[in-house]
Write a structure and sequence with these properties.
With 111 residues, this protein is of the alpha+beta class. The chain has one domain (4-102): HIT-like (HIT family, subunit A, 2-Layer Sandwich). It has 3 helices and 5 strands, in the order αβββααββ. The protein has a 5-stranded antiparallel beta sheet, with helices on one face. α2 crosses α3 (57-73). It is globular, with a radius of gyration of 13 Å. The N and C termini lie far apart (33 Å). Bound molecules: adenosine monophosphate and zinc ion. Residues 4-111 form the HIT domain. Pfam families: HIT.
Length: 111
């Protein structure tokens, strides 16, 4: 399978890694939409975060735990997480990921 994020996990595409565990990888988004913009992904391939939650709720929890730890490590007081699910919701890479963004204000509703 030709998956960009699987190649990031196996190291064949270099990225700026923020944190890596046995099950989860976090790296800086190549096109940041905020001063902090980190992607947190499962090392195993799933199509989106909904599929992770269905197949392995413990892994979904681990992804959220790593996300929260990174926000804390970076000293963020306010931050937003986003899991675009499906093309019309803005998903462009079909390997599950959470966007962690902080360091600016965010509008709500997001539009
Ligand atoms: P989404 O549109 O929710 O699927 O998010 C995919 C994200 O992956 C976008 O924010 C892209 O900027 C980011 N992205 C794509 N290629 C890379 C890459 N090589 N390294 C880091 N981030 C990437
Ligand atoms: Zn993948």
């Amino acid at each position: 399978m030709d998956c960009l994020f699987c190649k990031i996990v196996d190291g064949s595409i270099p990225v700026s890694i923020v944190k890596q565990t046995e099950k989860v990888t976090a790296f800086n988004d190549i096109s940041p939409q905020a001063p902090t913009h980190v992607l947190i992904i499962p090392n195993q391939h799933f199509e989106n975060m909904g599929r992770v939650a269905e197949a392995d709720p413990e892994l979904a929890g681990e992804i959220l735990k790593v996300t929260s730890a990174i926000a804390k490590d970076l000293g963020l007081e306010s931050w937003r997480i986003n899991a675009n699910t499906g093309a019309s919701a803005g998903q462009s890479v079909f390997h599950a990921h959470i966007h962690l963004m902080g360091g600016r204000t965010f509008a709500w509703p997001p539009g």
